[in-house]
Amino acid sequence: ALYNNDPLWENVSIRGIQVVGSSNYPAGNTTYKGGVISNVGVYSEGTCFNVSVSDCVFLEMTNGSVAILSADGSTGVTIKNNQFTNGNYNGKIISVYGTDGAGDNSPRNVLIDGNVLTDGGPLRHYDCSIEDWTSSADAIHLDNCRHSIISNNRLRNTSAEAIRVEQSQFIIVRGNSIYR
Fold this sequence. Notes:
Blueprint: E1 2-4, E2 8-15, E3 18-20, E4 42-45, E5 47-54, E6 57-59, E7 66-69, E8 75-80, E9 83-85, E10 94-97, E11 111-113, E12 116-118, E13 140-143, E14 146-151, E15 154-156, E16 163-166, E17 169-174, E18 177-179
Parallel strand pairs: 1-4, 2-5, 3-6, 4-7, 5-8, 6-9, 7-10, 8-11, 9-12, 10-13, 11-14, 12-15, 13-16, 14-17, 15-18
């Protein structure tokens, strides 16, 4: 997995890699999400300028596949033409978060386009009636972002929300296919 906790990630292109987290992915339907060992394919905390994740394959990630968090001031994040299979168990498959409440310093010009997301999330694998917990294991999640596009993605059998946009402004969601 690729992990960045520097305050700045600039002009980074991640292209054509395969990330497999299967050793930690719960195979059965009896694993409580709190007991799952966490892994993420691409993870960044901090400001991103012109960061691209494209043409990659993510398999069986437990805590999400691409997470760009605390991304205030970021611009030009592109997540495009990737394949995600069992891309999350107790996190989001793709997430971009700011903390500015969609203010002027929020992440902007985020493009999530042409990705294929198949299966994932505990609701696909775990009987929620057994334990007292809920899941927020969305497939695509933008939070506190501005001027961004989610387009032409294909989502099949993902749990929780297929596409979630919260506390964001000027977001275009178009041309996505969602199958349950």
